[in-house]
Amino acid sequence: MTLFFFGIALILAGGLSAALLHRRPAMADWGFGLLVASGCALGATPAIGVLAGRAVSGVSLAMPVPGGPWAFGIDGLSAFFLLVVFGVGLASAIYGLAYLAAERGHRAVATSHLLTAIELAALALVVTARAVVPFLIAWESMAVLAYFLVVFESEKADVRRAGLIYLVATHTGTLALFAMFAFWGRSAGLLSFEALAASAVSLPAQGALVLGLALVGFGIKAGLVPLHFWLPEAHGSAPSHVSALMSGVVIKMGIYGLLRVVNLLGALPPWWGWLVLVLGLLSGVLGVLWALAQHDLKRLLAYHSVENIGIILLGLGMGALGTSYHLPVVATLGFAGAILHTLNHALFKSVLFFGAGAVYRATGTRAIDRLGGLAGRMPLTWIAFLLGSVAIVGLPPLNGFVSEWVVYQALLRSGATRLPIHLAVLGVAGLALIGALALACFAKVGGIVFLGTARTADAEQGREVGAGMLGPMFALTLACGVIGLAPMLVVRPGLAAGALVAGLPADAAGSAGTEVLRAMTWIAILALALLLLLALGWTVWAIGSRRRPMARKETWACGYARAVPRAQYTASSFAAPLLASFGPITGVQQSRHGDVFHSHARELVLEGVALPLWSAIRGFAWRLRPIQQGRLWGYLVYLVAALLLLLLYLAASGEGTPP
Amino acid sequence: MTWTPLVALGTLLLVAPLLPGLAAKTKALLTGRRGAPVLQLYWDLRKLMGKGAVYSTTSTWLFRVAPVVVVVTALLAACIVPLDGHRALVSFTGDLVAFASLLGLGRFMLVLAGLDTGSSFEGLGASREVHFSSFVEPALFLCFAGLALASRDLSLTGMLGSPLATAWPTAAPSLVMIGVSLFLVLLAEASRVPVDDPATHLELTMIHEVIVLDHSGADFALILYGSALKFALFGALLVGVLVPRATVSAPTGIGLLGLGLVVVALLVGVVESIMARLRLSRVPQFLVAASVLASLGVILLLMA
After folding, report:
1. The complex's ipTM?
2. Is the pLDDT of residue A508 over 80?
3. Which of B127, B141, B281 lies at the smallest CB-CB distance from A428?
4. What is the mean pLDDT of chain A?
5. Which whole-number Å values give the CA distances from A536 to A541, A569, B68, in the listed order?
6. What are the tens digits of pLDDT across the range A413-437?
7. Tens of pLDDT along A78-115?
8. Chain A residues within 8 A of B200 when measuring between CB atoms
9. Which residues pair with B234 in a beta bridge?
10. A437 contact residues in B (CB cutoff 8 A)
11. Is residue B297 classed exposed, middle or buried when 0-12, 13-18 and 19+ CB atoms within 10 A define those classes?
12. Which positions 388-417 of A are in contact with B (Cβ < 8 Å)?
């Protein structure tokens, strides 16, 4: 734990160096980069130790505040999330140096680096806190700092709007968490996680209220449908390295929270598992459908975060159901799938956001239909983006396939059990649909943005970005490849962490766990065989085609020789038939004004529910305006009146009398 | 270590180009024409292998890699299917996901290669391909789920092997439904009527053919071989479900597989002669029917 806190201190020092040395940009960048990198490495060391099977002792600090001592600790679950925080966080911070370099001088770049460093520290504390007070402090710091990171380009009205929507949403979530911990803590007495866990059995209705509030509070952060409405706005408007950090790490804190609550509660009522499973299916299918409808590259990626949260929730739901129905294999596999997909999504989604950021820096636009033909101009970014796409679609030989495979295992293995949990086996159809739609969406993105010919002058001027942006991109791509080729490295600790969440011993999956690990060896062999056969096939092919004549001509357009770039398929036309067969739930609105055809993707929940609800609340709040006079004596009167009322209440109920 | 899985794989690789020819011949005979020779695809492949290729000035390395990926992924997927009726070369729990995902990788690269040309024709084909495959994939996984339930095994070797054979007497209605659903999946995956029409000559009505409009020479040969292999693979799955061969010896199993594949090809030819191709907007409904049928089979198994 000492190493961990030392790492946190180094990260904060890195942030300070960026802020203090801002007049010396080169030195500030080096200081920031080196300190944050060494801090992340130090902080991740105990986490890796825990995953390798070593125990790390926690610390407990006596604090002069209510709620008991502040405890911190690292278990198998924390360790996975710490890897995500430090790995993806470091890559985002380094990428941010190069990404924001162009803005130095007219925007608060140094402040943004400082905030990024504090955000990393807050994130690391969220997943290691073992008591309510430090957890909530870290949670709220993380949420508010993320707001400041998102509104970096605050002169733009839509960025400010996105930031405000995010701030309101995250505070609503925090409110639910306050309510949850207050309710839970009342029966626990002390506010340490240990005490909460010990009092879990005494919660009414198997902790129904706690579970419901957790789903709202952590669900808003995770961005599950229908609580996702803030997510595409915020992730789309933030600078790209912040989008990566938000999508890869910050929203995962919602998943961490849910897993931790499950871990502390121990027993779960079945309805909660089913609810999570259904929400997962809903988030997965709707997230990817909405992504297909987008025209903005980063908004599209943001909706894919909703989709992947759906896949994670499918795993989490299976884990919860396995816990409720006392099926250790399903429980372990479900939670393990959720944890592994969390890690994998953090890796490949960050690669994709880094790629999108590179495209934005190179061309100045995020509109998919204005791009095209970037594969030739930005070959390295294209390779990273392509590999990221293969990973997110869940195809071998990369990491997305591995964690989706584990979720499939949990779903399929439930079929061999008894009523009613075996109905969950039908969920494979949902996961298959999500995968196929994701394939459609990334075929669209890759094909329209990077392939074909440039549609506008913006796309023509695109040039490859520098090593500062390519480096972090390829580091994370490499991690995707390593997990894809040697999946047992993460699946073994993943199973242990899954069992930990379910409150079972590490080998709870028994022979099924052994089978899964054996399958990992086969998956590694298949992935390796795939790469080798591709290399072999390609070599044979290249040698063979040297003997055959080869010509370069313009694309065959059925005899039509004047094909213009404008005539290429666009993102809208590519997705249109698919969206049409899903009807109005996709939120696509089409209109025609004379010759101009326009299609627009509405955010259904934001425009249909959240904003109307917000304006209703504002209308009501307006009527309360008379009590806000802005004079000090008025507020003192309210204070006295409130205290008096409270005293009267206590006197009447007899609760306040000393024993 | 027995050699039969390897022999079975070799047989499949050899006979795959026969199937489209058989289907075309059946269709020709049933519609009163003489038709092309059954072995036409072999001659086509040989001719194309000797030819040079024309590449678009727009296309990149991806365009040339994609055909190799299509064949390699189909080949690896074939290693997971127990072709001799007993065991596959590669078998592990959950290998069915690897089977579908490997074919998915081939599809992904093929679609991207289509978009690589920048032609709106290829864009059209790519869009249709991903559209329809989104409806095929759930049906395929439901079929797999049904087979897993019936055989109580999560590897294709078990799902199509002796556990399935013992499950047939009790689970016959479900397995028949899954078989029919798999046949519909096959029609879609192999680009046959009523989803796609391999005989169409108008680019605007094509799906698979139009994605590969720009491929020529040896590249095109690989693509043609890859899609024939995919036809054979889904045929082998179908034969595996309907004719469990765990009780017969492996060589007989391979023979039965060959016979079954011929029957499947003939059946496809018959379907092509008696049915018109569906309007494109109707295809999703047809494919959803496959999913519904398979889920009905799964639900029946769950109730048992």
Report:
1. 0.97
2. yes
3. B141
4. 93
5. 8, 34, 10
6. 998 877 788 899 999 999 999 999 9
7. 999 999 999 999 999 999 999 999 888 888 899 999 99
8. none
9. none
10. 134
11. buried
12. 389-390, 393-396, 401, 404-405, 408-409, 412-413, 415-416
Q: Phi and psi for A136 in degrees, rounded to 5?
A: -70, -35
Per-residue pLDDT at A581 exceeds 80: yes
Predicted model pTM: 0.96
Asked if A555 and B216 touch (Cβ cutoff 8 Å), the reply is: no
> The tokens of B191 are what?
């680009």
Tokens matching residue A560: 């039509």
Mutation test of the interface with chain B: which of A556, A572, A573, choosing the one with the most B Cβ atoms within 10 A?
A556
pLDDT at A659 over 50: no
Position A591: which residue type?
Answer: S
Separation in Å, CA of B170 to nearest CA in chain A: 16
* DSSP secondary structure letters along chain B: --SHHHHHHHHHHHHTTHHHHHHHHHHHHHTT---S-TTHHHHHHHHHHHS-EEEESS--HHHHHHHHHHHHHHHHHHHHS-TTSS--SS--TTHHHHHHHHHHHHHHHHHHHHHHT--HHHHHHHHHHHHHHHHHHHHHHHHHHHHHHHHT-SSHHHHTSHHHHHHHHHHHHHHHHHHHHHHHHHHHHTT-TTT--TT---GGG-SHHHHTTT--HHHHHHHHHHHHHHHHHHHHHHHHHHS--TTS-HHHHHHHHHHHHHHHHHHHHHHHHH-PPPPGGGHHHHHHHHHHHHHHHHHHHHH-
Q: What is the DSSP string of B62-84?
A: HHHHHHHHHHHHHHHHHHHS-TT
pLDDT at residue A127, rounded to an integer: 97
- Chain position carrying tokens 């025609």: A592
Residue A22: pLDDT band (50, 70, 90) is confident
Beta-carbon separation of A551 and B55 below 8 A: yes
Per-residue confidence (pLDDT) for residue A657, from 0 to 100: 53
Task: Give CA–CA dist A304/A348, Å, rounded.
Answer: 11
Short-list B122, B265, B125, CA closest to B195: B125
Give the percent of chain B with pLDDT over 90.
83
Contacts of residue A439, defined as CB under 8 A and 6 or more positions apart, other chains included, come to A393, A395, B104, B107, B108, B111, B130, B133, B134
- Short-list A38, A149, A157, A40, CA closest to A96: A149
Over 70: is that where the pLDDT of B1 sits?
no
Closest to A289 (Cα-Cα) out of A343, A228, A239, A356: A228
Per the CB < 8 A criterion, the answer to whether A287 and A307 are in contact is: yes
Lowest mean pLDDT among A153-167, A444-458, A621-635, B254-268: A621-635
**How many other CB atoms are there within 10 angstroms of residue B1's CB atom?**
4
